[in-house]
Structure formats: structure tokens, C-alpha cells
Amino acid sequence: MQTEFDSQCPDKIKVTKMKEFFPQEKQELNKCEFLSGNETAKIAEKAYTELGSELGCRLVEPNVVLTLSGMKGQADIHWINMDKENIEKLRRSELKFEKLGLKIVYPKKLKKDSTTISIAIINFKGMERKSKSTKILGIRTYENKMGAKGFNDWYGLLFESLEQMQEEGKISKEVDLQVVFEGLILGYPDQAILDFEKCLREGDIHKDLIESDISSVLPEAQKYQGAVPEFYFYLDHKNDIEIVDYIKKAKQVLCDFYKSDWFKNIEKDQEFLLAREKIEKNKKSVL
Fold it and tell me: What are phi and psi of 114, to 5 degrees?
């Protein structure tokens, strides 16, 4: 559960008692529901046309697909070969992406002519959904209609809000707020965020936690892996309502996306295929 961008509970509270740790109620999500897989494919098509094959080929990765749908607020995209041409392409696309409710986080300048880096794609609606659904203390609601400026203001205050809750004793001093912050930004279920944070402090995430199986829904979701869409949680929480619901809906979005006409056509496109081959080479060069 790591992100390269600004971007558990206390011992006296059992991990299963979420209401004790997050007592406040949140708003209904009827007005900020995520897109279906087919609707997401239409967004991906518009974004792909704007970005071209080299950058656009990353839009089919499951983690990015879920972000474009609004299920997640942010997806990291690794192994990008960034040069001045790509920076200019992203700069020209900013306003059009904002109209789609999206923002791409990328370096505005490079120290070298080209370098392999990570960027991120943010979905304002996804951030709104999580800000309204989470019961983690101190999280202010973000409204999609506030746009990029409102998002930047909200984002900047998010970690400060968590710190304030910790200073007031409402969140244990032992809790690593950076892990909680990243989990929220990436849109993971609350209990998974808590479990991951707690296990990082007290256990072994490779032995004590189990991994979601979102990418198992179709071979395409595994073939086009980038940053994985999975998250971790304790076995005792496998029936947590939010975790079960999230996994089910994420699989449905991916299933519909990979069966969409746009995806079926683009995965046969020669420029797309060559761009994906280049990504695999970049990946091998840095791993």
C-alpha cells in the first residue's frame, strides 16, 4: 500500500470494533456512484486519444481502470519513460482531463532529457466517494464540483486533519498516519487500511495478512498489470461488508471493461502493442 506522492487500532481497542475507532456517520453515496466498466471504457478512449499510445497504453491496467471508474481516488503508474515531449503532451491535456474529472500528477521539469519515473492519475469523483464513505476520524468531505483547486486545498489539509485527531487523543499515537493517509488516497476499504497499518507495526504483512484477488477476474487483468489493485487484510475480516462489496464491484468493473468494444479493438492496435512492449522493457530495466 505504497504511493510516491503526497503524497490499529490502539492496543486497548480490538481491531474488529470499528465503531469505537470511527464513530461518525458519513453521507450516502447515491450522488457519487462509480462508472460501469463500459462507461469507463468510454472515458479511457477519450483519454487515450488525448495521450497517444505511449502514455495511453497504461490506461488498460486494472489499477488505472478502477481509478477511471471512480472506485479509487488515485492510481500510481510506474515505469513511465518521461521526456520533454511527454511532459508537453500532459501539460496540453490538463484542461481536457479536468473536464473528465481527472488529474495527472507528473513532474513539470526533468533533470535529464529523459528518465523512467512514476506518475499518478487522480479521479475527483473517486476521492469524493472515499471522503464520504470512510469512517476514519478527521476526514473532511471533498465535493467533486469543487474541481482541481478545491481538491488541492482538501488534499493539503487531509494529513493535517489526521494529525489533529491524533493530537487530541482520538487516534492512538502509535498509528502511522502516513499509512492511513495513503490508504485513504488510494481508496482502499477502511478495515484493510487499519489491518495493513497495524500489521506493519506489530506483525509480518507477508505472513499475517491475506491479499484480495481482484486481478483474478480475467486473464486480461493479470496480463496488463502495473501497480496492482490489490489490498491486504486479516483473515478475520474477510467477511467485512466494505471489503466484500469492494472486491465484488471492482471485479465487475474490470470484467465489463475488458469485454468492451473499445478494449477489444485497442488491444489489437499495432501502436498499442508496441507501446506495451516498451513498458515491459522499462519495467525490466528498473526491477
Answer: -155, 150
- Distance separating alpha carbons of residues 116 and 61, to the nearest angstrom: 18
Amino acid at 45: E
Helices (H) and strands (E) in the chain, counts: 14, 5
Mean pLDDT computed over 184-198: 96
Pairing of strands 232-234, 209-211: antiparallel
Secondary structure (3-state) at 3:
coil
Each residue's pLDDT tens digit, 145-176: 888 889 999 998 999 999 999 999 999 999 99
- Give start and end residues of each alpha helix (H) in 100-218: 124-133, 147-167, 177-185, 190-202, 205-208
Q: What is the rounded distance in angstroms from the CA atom of residue 227 to the CA atom of residue 213?
A: 14
**Nearest CA to 282 among 24, 80, 86?**
80
CA distances from 199 to 9, 137, 165, 193 (A): 10, 20, 21, 10
Summarised one tens digit per residue, pLDDT across range 6-15 is 333 323 223 3
- What is the amino acid identity at position 259? K
Instruction: Give the position of cell 471492482.
Output: 250
Grid coordinates given for 45: 478512449
Q: Cα–Cα distance between 12 and 175 in angstroms, integer?
A: 13
